[in-house]
Design goal:
The protein is mainly alpha-helical. It has a domain at 55-61 and 71-107 and 114-192: DksA, coiled-coil domain (Four Helix Bundle (Hemerythrin (Met), subunit A)). It has 7 helices and no strands. It has helices spanning 5-14, 38-61, 76-110, 114-119, 121-149, 165-170, 178-192. Helix 3 runs antiparallel to helix 5. The longest helix has 35 residues, at 76-110. Bound molecules: zinc ion. Residues 156, 158-159, 161, 176-177, 179-180 line the site of zinc ion. Residues 156, 158-159, 161, 176-177, 179-180 line the site of zinc ion (ZN).
Length: 193
C-alpha cells in the first residue's frame, strides 16, 4: 500500500523535537533561542580566580608572630599561634569544599541530558579538580595539627632542624626546612625530568 510520505513528514516537523522542561515563560514564544550559554563559562572563570585569591588572601592575612628576645622555639605560645592559623585555614577550606560539593551536585541535577552535560564538562571537571585539591590540602593541614600535638611541628622531617617561624607563617603545612626542600625538589626533577 503506497502511502503519502510527504504529508507525514510535514506533520512531524510541526511537532518540536526538543521539549525542554524549563520554567521560563518565554519557552513557548521562542523555542529555538538558546539563552544564557555564556554565563556559566564566565561564572566558572571568575570563581577559579576567586578561589586562588582566597587562598593567597588567607596566607597574607596571617599576622606575624611577635618574637621576644631569647624566646624558646615552639613554646606553648608559638604552638597556639600556629594552631589557630591551621584551625581557621581548615575551617575555611571545609566551607569551600562543601560549596564545591554543592556545585557538583548542582551540575548533575541541572544537566540530566547527556549533551547538556558534555557542554558543561569543562566546568564539571574543574569542580572535581578543585574538590580534590581542597581535600589534599585539608589532609595536610590535619597532619600539621597532629604534628603540633605530638610536638613534631616546626622541625624538619629530614634533618631535624628548626624550620623557622617565618617560613611556617608563609607555608603553615611545611614539613621540611628550606634546604631539605630544595634538595628534595632537585631529586624529584632528576627522577622525573
Ligand atoms: Zn632539613
Amino acid at each position: 500500500m503506497p502511502s503519502k510520505p510527504t504529508k507525514k513528514k510535514k506533520e512531524k516537523k510541526t511537532t518540536p523535537k526538543k521539549v525542554v522542561a524549563k520554567k521560563t515563560t518565554a519557552k513557548k514564544t521562542t523555542p529555538k533561542k538558546v539563552v544564557a550559554k555564556k554565563t556559566p563559562v564566565k561564572k566558572s572563570a571568575t570563581k577559579k580566580n576567586v578561589k586562588k585569591y582566597e587562598e593567597a588572601q588567607f596566607l597574607a592575612s596571617i599576622k606575624p608572630y611577635a618574637l621576644k628576645k631569647n624566646e624558646k622555639y615552639m613554646n606553648a605560645k608559638q604552638k597556639n599561634h600556629f594552631l589557630s592559623i591551621l584551625d581557621s585555614w581548615a575551617e575555611q577550606l571545609q566551607i569551600e569544599q562543601d560549596r564545591t560539593a554543592d556545585k557538583i551536585q548542582e551540575n548533575v541535577s541541572n544537566f540530566p541530558d547527556e549533551s547538556d552535560r558534555a557542554t558543561h564538562e569543562e566546568e564539571f571537571t574543574l569542580e572535581l579538580r578543585t574538590r580534590e585539591r581542597e581535600r589534599k590540602l585539608l589532609s595536610k593541614i590535619n597532619e600539621s595539627i597532629d604534628d603540633l600535638k605530638s610536638s613534631d611541628y616546626g622541625y624538619c622531617a629530614s634533618c631535624g632542624i628548626e624550620i623557622g617561624i617565618r617560613r611556617l607563617e608563609a607555608r603553615p603545612t611545611a614539613t621540611r626546612c628550606i634546604d631539605c626542600k630544595t634538595i628534595e625538589e632537585i631529586h624529584e626533577r632528576q627522577q622525573f625530568g
